[in-house]
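Progress report, Aim 2. The chain analyzed during this reporting quarter is listed below.
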Amino acid sequence: MVLDRDGVINYDSDKYIKSADEFIPLPGSLDAISTLHRVGYKIIVATNQSGLARGLFDEYALAKIHSKLSSMVEEAGGLITGVLYCPHLPNEGCKCRKPSTGLLVQAEKEFGVSLKGCQFIGDSLSDLRSALAFGMKPVLVRTGKGKKTEKTLSMSKLPPIAVFDNLRLAIDDLVATEG
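Predicted structure tokens for the chain:
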């Protein structure tokens, strides 16, 4: 299972999440991740973090944010297998920035998993396109940028996408369907 971070797990900001203090989980997201862990899923977070390239925060601040995320999930009874991020600007043409699939390739290598056919839950077209390009099942949540993204789906030429109000509801549906 792959999750985007900002807008899916935590509140997003147009000014970027620059410190651990600014990382505030969305209601139900930590419990949802814990549920995934309890039913046997490995959870990988794949996130674009161009704030690094913009000089808004450094690797140390990002590591503290991800440490806080992991600790909060563990306190809720879950486990995040890993967090992967793209530090580049959108126009740099890297292979890791979603909608490219570099983070997903890295996840398979680093964590010894196959992500083909797995779900990728995100709030943006770049998340959905990355999932589809890699043979994953994209799921859209309406949190973060999700409501705006949902309005563009009909024009995006993507196949039908499952849409949920939030991560908790998406995970509840997954567990009920597969469990």
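The chain is about 35% helix and 15% strand. The mean pLDDT is 97. These observations will guide the mutagenesis work planned for the next reporting period.
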